[in-house]
Write a structure and sequence with these properties.
- The complex is a heterodimer of chains A (248) and B (210).
- By secondary structure, chain A is α/β, with parallel strands linked by helices.
- Chain A has one domain: P-loop containing nucleotide triphosphate hydrolases (Rossmann fold), CATH 3.40.50.300.
- Chain A is built from 9 helices and 10 strands.
- In chain A, helix 3 crosses helix 4 (113-126), helix 3 (97-107) runs parallel beside helix 5 and helix 5 (142-154) packs parallel to helix 6.
- Chain B starts with a helix and ends with a helix.
- In chain B, helix 2 packs across helix 4 (73-99).
- With 210 residues, chain B is mainly α.
- Chain B has a single domain, classed as MetI-like (MetI-like fold).
- Chains A and B meet through helix 1, helix 2, strand 6 and helix 3 of A and helix 5 and helix 6 of B.
- The structure holds adenosine-5'-triphosphate and magnesium ion.
C-alpha cells in the first residue's frame, strides 16, 4: 500500500524568515497526524504548502504516489483531492450554506446542480445542519460555520483533509461540536493532518503527534509517547507551558 | 439625447471597466504586458481632462475622414466619455477587488476552482456589492459630463463662423494641453498608488494570519 502523503525536505521562507527548514513527514492511508507547536512554528504554513496555496522553496510533496510539486502539475486538479479547513472558517458570505457547499462540486468537479445539491443535503443531514441549508453564514454560530466549512471541504470527496486550528476561533462551549465532527471523520477512516492547540483532542484522536519547533519536526511519536514522556527538552517546555495554561 | 448617451455609455463602461480591473489584477510575469497596458490605460485616461478628449475625438476623428469609420460627433464624443469613465470605474472595481480578503480567494482555490472561477464566483460578487456607492458616484459624474458631448454641436456651429480657421482640424494645441496635464496627473496617481501599497504592506506585516 502506498503512503497517502509524503513530505521530503520541505523548505519555505518568507523573505529572510525561514519558516520551514526541512520537514520530512509521511502519512499512511487512514492515518491521523496532529501537528503541535508554539505559535509561529510554521504549522499553518506547512498545511498551506501541502495544499499548494504556498509554493515551496525546496523539497518534494508526494500525494498517493504522485509528486504534486513538479512543474507540469495541474494545481487545481490536485487541490480537488485535498480538503482544507481554516481557523477563520472562510465561508463565502454572499452565498447560502448550500451554495457554499455546492460551489466546488459544481464548478470544479462539473457536477449537475441536482447531484451537487443531493450531495450537500446528505452531508448537512449527517452533521445535523439540515435546517441551516438556506441560511447565510452570518446567521450561524461560529461552531455551525466551522461545521459548514468542514462539510464544504468534504463535498469534494477528498482523500486527504488538512485542518488548521479549526477550533481556535471558537467560544469554548462551541469547540466540542466541531471536535465531534472530526472524531467522526477519523472513525470513518479519513486521512488527516491536523494543526491544533487542543492537546487533549490530539491525544484522543491522533495516531501520531509531531512537535514542530523552529521549522523542523523536533520530535514525533504516539500521543502516549509525546504527552507521557517527551524526550526533547523543548517539547517538555512546550507541554509544560500548555499545562500551566490549563489546556491539558 | 443625453439620456441615451448616458445609458449606452453606462452599460458599456460597467463591463469594460471590470475587464480593465481584472487585467490589472493578473499576477505572474507572463501577464506583465497586459498588466502594464491596464496601468497605462487607467493613468492616461484619468489624466486627460474629459472635455479635451471629447473635443479631440469629437472633431478630430471625423475630420480625418477615414473610410469605414463613423463621422458623427456624437458617436465619438460618447466614445471619449466611455474611454475616460472606464478608467475611473476600473479603479473603483480594483479597490473593491482588493478589499476582499485574500483568505476568500484561498478558500475558493483550495476547492480546486481556477483563478478565473474564483474571481467570477467569489471575489467579484463581493467586490461589486462593496463598490456600488462609489460606482453610483461616478455615474453621477458621467451623467453630468454627457452634457459636454452636447456642447460639441454648439462649438461646431461656432467654428463654422470662423473664416480664418483652416478646414482641417488641428490636433496640436489639444495634444500639447493633454501632455501638460498628464505630466502632472500621472506622477500624482503613481504617488497615491505607492502610498496605498506601502500602507497595505505595513498592515500585512503586522497581521499575518492564515
Ligand atoms: N504570507 C506570509 N508572509 C510573511 N510571513 C509569513 C506569512 N505567513 C506566515 N508568515 C510567518 O511565518 C511564521 C510561521 O507562521 P505560521 O502561521 O505557519 O505559524 P503557526 O505555527 O501556524 O502559528 P499559529 O499557531 O499562531 O497559527 C510566522 O512567523 C509568520 O509571521
Ligand atoms: Mg496557524
Amino acid at each position: 500500500m502506498s503512503d497517502a502523503l509524503s513530505l521530503e525536505g520541505i523548505r519555505k521562507s518568507f523573505g529572510k524568515l525561514e519558516v520551514l527548514r526541512g520537514i520530512d513527514l509521511t502519512l499512511a492511508e487512514h492515518e491521523v497526524v496532529c501537528l503541535i507547536g508554539a505559535s509561529g512554528s510554521g504549522k499553518s504554513t506547512l498545511l498551506r504548502c501541502v495544499n499548494l496555496l504556498e509554493p515551496i522553496d525546496a523539497g518534494r510533496i508526494i500525494l498517493h504516489g504522485e509528486e504534486i510539486t513538479g512543474r507540469a502539475v495541474d494545481v487545481n486538479r490536485v487541490r480537488r483531492g485535498i480538503g482544507i479547513v481554516f481557523q477563520s472558517f472562510n465561508l463565502f458570505p454572499h452565498m447560502s450554506v448550500v451554495r457554499n457547499i455546492t460551489l466546488g462540486p459544481r464548478k470544479a468537479l462539473g457536477l449537475s446542480k441536482a447531484d451537487a445539491d443531493a450531495r450537500a443535503d446528505e452531508l448537512l443531514g449527517r452533521f445535523g445542519l439540515s435546517d441551516k441549508r438556506d441560511d447565510f453564514p452570518d446567521r450561524l454560530s461560529g461552531g455551525q460555520q466551522q461545521r459548514v466549512a468542514i462539510v464544504r471541504a468534504l463535498a469534494m470527496q477528498p482523500e486527504l483533509m488538512l485542518l488548521d486550528e479549526v477550533t481556535s476561533a471558537l467560544d469554548p462551549e462551541l469547540v466540542a461540536e466541531v471536535l465531534d465532527v472530526i472524531r467522526e471523520l477519523a472513525g470513518g477512516g479519513m486521512t488527516m493532518l491536523i494543526a491544533t492547540h487542543e492537546m487533549s483532542f490530539a491525544r484522543d484522536v491522533a495516531h501520531r503527534v509531531c512537535f514542530l519547533d523552529a521549522g523542523v519536526i523536533l520530535e514525533e511519536g504516539t500521543p502516549a509517547e509525546i504527552f507521557g514522556s517527551p524526550r526533547q527538552p523543548r517539547t517538555q517546555q512546550f507541554l509544560q507551558r500548555i499545562v500551566q495554561a490549563g489546556r491539558l | 439625447m443625453n439620456v441615451k448617451i448616458f445609458c449606452i455609455a453606462e452599460v458599456v463602461i460597467l463591463f469594460t471597466a471590470l475587464g480593465v480591473a481584472v487585467l490589472r489584477g493578473l499576477t505572474g510575469p507572463v501577464f506583465f504586458p497586459v498588466r502594464f497596458f491596464a496601468v497605462v490605460y487607467a493613468d492616461f485616461f484619468r489624466g486627460i481632462p474629459t472635455i479635451l478628449l471629447i473635443y479631440m475625438l469629437g472633431f478630430g476623428i471625423p475630420a480625418l475622414q477615414l473610410s469605414g469609420v463613423p463621422t458623427s460627433e456624437l458617436f465619438w464624443g460618447t466614445v471619449a466619455l466611455i474611454l475616460v469613465y472606464t478608467a475611473y470605474v476600473s479603479e473603483v472595481y480594483r479597490a473593491g477587488i482588493e478589499s476582499v480578503h485574500p483568505s476568500q480567494n484561498a478558500a475558493a482555490r483550495s476547492l480546486g476552482l481556477s483563478h478565473g472561477q474564483s474571481l467570477r464566483y467569489v471575489v467579484i460578487p463581493q467586490a461589486v456589492r462593496r463598490v456600488i456607492p462609489p460606482l453610483l458616484n461616478d455615474f453621477i459624474g458621467l451623467q453630468k459630463d454627457t452634457a459636454l458631448v452636447g456642447v460639441l454641436g454648439v462649438v461646431e456651429a461656432f467654428r463654422q463662423t470662423q473664416i480664418n480657421q483652416a478646414d482641417t482640424f488641428n490636433f496640436t494645441p489639444g495634444i500639447v494641453a493633454a501632455v501638460l496635464f498628464l505630466l502632472i496627473t500621472v506622477p500624482l496617481t503613481r504617488f497615491t498608488d505607492w502610498l496605498i501599497a506601502r500602507d497595505r504592506r505595513r498592515r500585512q506585516a503586522t497581521g499575518v494570519l492564515a
